[in-house]
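Recap quiz, item 2
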Amino acid sequence: MSPQPLKIVVIGGSAAGPKAAAKARRLDEHAAITIIQQEPDLSMASCGYHYYVGGVFDDRNLLICTPAGIVRDPTFFEKAKGIEALVETQALAIDRTAKTVTCKHLPSGTTRILPYDKLVIATGASTLYPPVPGVTLDGVLSLHSLADADALRAVRDAKQVRTAVVVGGGLIGFEVCEALHLAGIQTTVIEKTAAILPFLDPELAKLVENYVRTHGADIITGNGVAAFLGTDGTLTGVKLDNGTELPCELAVVAVGVKPNVALAASAGLAIGALGGIEVNDWMQTSDPDIYAGGDCVECTSLITGQKVLAPYGDLANLQGRVIGQNLIHAGAARFPGVTHTGICKIFDYTVGFTGLSAEQARAAGLTDIETVTVAGLDIPGFMNGKLLISKMVAQRQTGRVLGLQCIGPGDVSKRVATVAMAIRGRLTIDDLANADLPYAPPYSLALDHVIVCAHVMENKLLGRMPGICAAEVKQRLATGADCFILDTRTPREFETMRLGIGETLIPQGALRARLNELPQNKDREIIVYCAISLRGYECAAILQGHGWRNVKVMEGGVAAWPYPRER
Amino acid sequence: MSPQPLKIVVIGGSAAGPKAAAKARRLDEHAAITIIQQEPDLSMASCGYHYYVGGVFDDRNLLICTPAGIVRDPTFFEKAKGIEALVETQALAIDRTAKTVTCKHLPSGTTRILPYDKLVIATGASTLYPPVPGVTLDGVLSLHSLADADALRAVRDAKQVRTAVVVGGGLIGFEVCEALHLAGIQTTVIEKTAAILPFLDPELAKLVENYVRTHGADIITGNGVAAFLGTDGTLTGVKLDNGTELPCELAVVAVGVKPNVALAASAGLAIGALGGIEVNDWMQTSDPDIYAGGDCVECTSLITGQKVLAPYGDLANLQGRVIGQNLIHAGAARFPGVTHTGICKIFDYTVGFTGLSAEQARAAGLTDIETVTVAGLDIPGFMNGKLLISKMVAQRQTGRVLGLQCIGPGDVSKRVATVAMAIRGRLTIDDLANADLPYAPPYSLALDHVIVCAHVMENKLLGRMPGICAAEVKQRLATGADCFILDTRTPREFETMRLGIGETLIPQGALRARLNELPQNKDREIIVYCAISLRGYECAAILQGHGWRNVKVMEGGVAAWPYPRER
């Protein structure tokens, strides 16, 4: 006689839950697997919601279908996966002694008690709402669930809303901004802190801000929402902390999410300091028969070793797969941690990051760091290459790569993926500097952008390139510092675009013949740049070779200058 | 008094040479640096030649300009870089005792003797020509130098040539094929060996072959060129080894290149077994004052430790940069070796690879390997995802990633770059299986294609997925083996496209209810597949769970089937 089949209950039917269930099924055809899902849908492509809202595609089923076009409903789960999926069903309580989960079918109110041998908690996260008046007004929405997506898609299709405010200038905020922009709605993003996109260092965030402003959306920073204003229960505007009122018919809250841990906490499972469920490398909670994964757990940073919240769909799937293996073969698979990687499309820009920004590195207690800002094309100009602006962070002593932020109209995604893998491998700048990457003109420059970043970083680490970032130059200007500013581009480039910060133009090719035009005090600070600061770097070397002792290259050149310029 | 400036002579003005010279200049403003270049141009973007030939852009200057639009001629080198560039000048001899290079200005015949402290040899490679009659006929060209590009561009612009043969089905051959196709010339690629693109395993090469054939070019394999045929000194056709005559007005030879080592060999420098100049990790030849880099040297494989020829433009630049540093600070920089990475656009397909194919791994003596073939989309279907077909190779015992071949209309380049970095970091399948890559629908599936490759590989390594490749299935069919073939797609998919190899259709969702339709002999071999073989894998698990002991998943499913099919 066969042994009793293993009873597995999975709470949560979005990403980590179904993945754990499906993986467990593939490893044990006879386990009894049940998914409890509060929403009516299962395995939703939640990262695609804003493209549905924006009208990139119209068939809602695409969000809940397999690639073969089969809707992932309970029948699909039963037939294809042999998994019982209870939708519109809420898990009410976990009894760890009896090893049962009590759940309620919401439409009927019927309660069931499900016994388990192994339990998975994948309860996800919920939208945070700012604690201000008016948050329940009609017209205040979020974009977290498929129901939210339906509501916002209905707004788009009704074509009544002309003006919207997005509350929150993080990744989700700009995804919503993208969706509303695609839907033809005039959008203002408001961000409480001084800069948008907190995973970017401020000067890169500023460049994105400039781009978004010139491409159809407005941004207000340093100003949170004080109240949602309304008439007869319906939103009419948003009032900011500084008293400004922005009239709008729609406000979408996107200030972040918090892990859903109430059920786990009630069951006495350990909750971490960041508010997520504590799990070990095997995604096991403080109860060895209960696993947890997805947006409701805390992860470990592979860079700092510290706990972090990383509510991303890809990680939820990876964690679900690890859990599925451990459900059937305890200890079979580990989830080692995260490298903090993310990406977002904002109009024709991509904003991506992996690892730590300089600010995040310092906040994590890493002080021995070096940074470089590099601008350049993704592929050759003759193939219509597009701009990339990156900031790379490395550990000074070891040369270890700690992070890359990359923005621009160029192919950001490839560069972020490449460096994410380098960070995973704990590679150094030296490894990156000689990387053997796929090169052909449709795909890369002869020296790919990430290799150039590594070269510039190496030059800085070896003391060959004295860099200065745009923010520091701006600071020099603000304090009236006595520095000589040298633009080394061609007269034609200078006519088309220039900073107008008191610079002198001496094209690179003329520099050696015009050294007499430079400060004769060889200790005076000279700040040199060009379009992207490659020529700037070469010119700095020329000046140093001729005895100037205080030359600095403004990193990223004109391309990375985030402040107003003369033309 | 200043010390005597360092005298540096660089032979070769294409990639490695100018890069070495420029890097040396940046580290020493006072060195006397001279480049000897046989051709009239300098620092040509040679990998862009075929796009110029094909008419992707018309301004030839783009091939020899800086991004700021300045032509990299001797004046530019003098003014911007402080480097003397002697063009149309041939290096005749190196006297290592006197430390001089004798060179001749070709137009005038004037000879000069240049003394050096440090010498760089970057003499590149030359096109190999098959040793057959007619190779000097008008109309037999190659695409290696800018002069070749000019000649082929003239052919395009004259619009007289309608039919061309490309001799050689490797990377260069298909780049030429792409160029001629863009130029509107009907092209046949002929390849002496059984399969095109030798860096791919045969079944992937076959998929590319199928694609190219249905998109406007012809391919003949297993048949080399026996003679170029002509009338009055002008090409009229190509005769193949099997006697077939292909009429054509143009033949482009692209069977490969050989390192230019005559000068180095005459000077008594060590030449390796593969015919390239021997260099150590510092790119130093057997004479410590002479460095060499680019297509004329042998490199070390980071995977096998063996010597390889790797004539790629990106590596030449990297090596030039290493040399430039060592010229000024001996021992400052190392070039660790190559991971064998390349990429090529063929019409709307991309063909990329990094590391070793299964055949290359075996040829290098690595027998303990496992492979997987995986098909899937690059981004979600609702974002118009495109197909990628990959074959990954790993070391069985250690799980170390050894290679990825990736082809298809999807974003191949990103996946190859990602895995190239993983190989550089000596990462394992386990590392890749939990990689934290940038995920958003415009850029990736929730589980990126390379992660899925790692998952399938892991399943094979752990014995969870018994895979069989299309070639083996074909072999089974050819020998009349008694296997049961199961297609697990939907009836609609089956109507649209099917193999017609005796398969039975049982959709995944119906399988558990129709197990009685399967062979009752549970040791009989069952081969199962779907569109890409994800459902196939799940169905195999179902069958194994119900006692079938000889179930195999046909990897990559219908998408990776390279043979004729019923519809």
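Residues 313-328 of chain A form the longest helix (16 residues).
Chain A has 16 helices and 30 strands.
End of item.
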